[in-house]
UniProtKB/TrEMBL annotation:
Residues 118-180 form the SAF domain. Residues 1-39 form the signal peptide. Belongs to the FlgA family. Involved in the assembly process of the P-ring formation. It may associate with FlgF on the rod constituting a structure essential for the P-ring assembly or may act as a modulator protein for the P-ring assembly. Keywords: Bacterial flagellum biogenesis, Cell projection, Cilium, Flagellum, Periplasm, Signal. It comes from Chromohalobacter beijerinckii. The keyword Transmembrane does not apply. NCBIfam families: flgA_cterm. Pfam families: ChapFlgA (PF13144), ChapFlgA_N (PF17656). The keyword Signal applies. This is Flagella basal body P-ring formation protein FlgA. Its main location: periplasm. It is found in: Periplasm.
């Protein structure tokens, strides 16, 4: 009986190393396969999202950067990821990207931050209200797109020759909604109105009822009391169209 027990014990000891080895191999394969599959899916989502945002934000300025804020490793498997923006417009600052997948109808969402270095025009010196801008009054400032003031101008031709409607201190941004064309027509002064058709042109004098620069619409009272509206041309006349 003792000899039988000893034989069984020896047989078990002989098989144990092989059983342990097989178990280790299977365990390593399981550990290796799962993270690799997940990593491939996660990398695809991350790469596609970054590429998509970089292309969408290319027009923002220089040094466009994208930083993912979501942990893509927690997202379900996604085959053939197709990114889209839930909201229209150029992405900037904190954004959300939707991801559609071919393997199911569930939309994944990834948060990211889009940054870009942009430059815009600022006042090189203090400028009083009503002053007409010249090139030496302008300077440049560079900042992240998220800190660019609303309606800030980035083209000197949009500012030079125009008039400031609000006082600016040195370094303040030049905004399009705070500039106007210089007045060519002044309220209360005489103005020439030109009306014409295919075969005729009529010129009359009237009194301007409001100020206006080139391209502005201005009303004028005629000698008979009738009020006409015309568009200011480059010579300060009102072109009236019938």
């Amino acid at each position: 009986m003792q000899r039988i027990l000893n034989a069984i014990r020896a047989f078990s000891l002989a098989r144990r190393p092989r059983l342990v080895a097989v178990g280790l191999v299977l365990g390593l394969l399981a550990i290796a396969a799962t993270p690799t599959a997940l990593a491939a899916s996660d990398d695809a989502i991350a790469q596609v999202t970054r590429h998509f945002l970089m292309s969408q934000a290319a027009s923002l300025g220089d040094d466009v950067g994208v930083e993912l804020k979501s942990d893509t490793s927690r997202l379900p498997e996604c085959r053939s990821p197709q990114p889209f923006l839930p909201r229209d417009g150029v992405p900037q600052g904190r954004v959300m990207v939707g991801i559609r997948c071919s393997n199911d109808e569930q939309v994944r969402y990834v948060q990211a931050t889009v940054s870009a270095s942009v430059r815009f025009l600022v006042a090189a010196t203090a400028i009083k209200r009503g002053e007409q801008l010249s090139a030496d009054m302008l300077d440049w400032e560079r900042a992240d797109v998220s800190r660019r003031p609303r309606n800030a101008l980035d083209d000197p031709s949009q500012a030079i020759g125009k008039v400031i409607t609000q006082r600016l201190t040195k370094g303040m941004a030049l905004r399009g909604d705070r500039l106007r064309q210089p007045y060519l027509v002044h309220r209360g002064e005489s103005v020439t109105l030109i009306a014409g058709g295919e075969d005729f042109t009529v010129t009359r004098e009237g009194e301007a009822l409001n100020n206006g620069g080139k391209g502005d619409s201005v009303r004028a009272r005629m000698p008979d009391g009738k009020v006409l509206r015309g568009q200011v041309d480059a010579r300060g006349r009102l072109a009236v169209r019938y």
